[in-house]
Amino acid sequence: MLTVANLSKQFGEQSVLRDVSFSLEQGEVLAVLGRSGCGKTTLLKILAGLEMPTAGTLLLHGQDLRPVPPNERQMVYLYQEPLLFPHLTVFENVAFGLRIRNVAKAEINQQVQELLAELDLWEHAQKAPHQLSGGQRQRVSFGRALIIRPRLLLLDEPFGNLDAQTRADMQQLFLRVSRQHQITSLFVTHDSREALTVGTRFAYLDQGQLTSFASVGEFVQDARTAIRSELAFWENIQQKLE
User: Fewer Cβ within 10 Å of end Cβ, the chain: N or C?
Assistant: First the structure.
């Protein structure tokens, strides 16, 4: 579905991405782990059309994305901040993408009702964004993205501002919904546990260079992910409890 080959990006003399290559099939979630400043957000912005690559190719279903404007790429970019329309209800925020596509009113009502129920938001349908919790606002943002059936979902540490329990709940919600709707996603994070939770494929981005892993085992064993040291920490705690 998505093929990225030899993608590079420079800002002046600074090289941010260097020969990044990977591919994604329909329904796969590529979890890209990396520290702050490694180029994760730049990669997402290039895919979304918000930045132009210095070199490389981007193909989505065989289509060259480089000349395609952002609003025609049929992608959705989700940030840590939900960026909801404050003057619209939850229902209207989710329905917005369908309304601007002139979908029939009855079809909009049906689709939005079904999605809000799926996201456990139906009882909040007539509330304004300021009346919601952080997790609820992020669910509304997620629903607004899903309703238009994007070809690719780009997630830039979307749950980073949530408390630990709400973040875990959102990860499970993302897993359930993405599997049900076969959503193809690129999910960037600096949290190894989150990467392991949401990903079906795994990669590590370090100083602009992307390493893809053939298996979860290879991802865990790579010292840069720090997963082995975290496992050792919890094993040590377990020994103390025993």
Answer: C
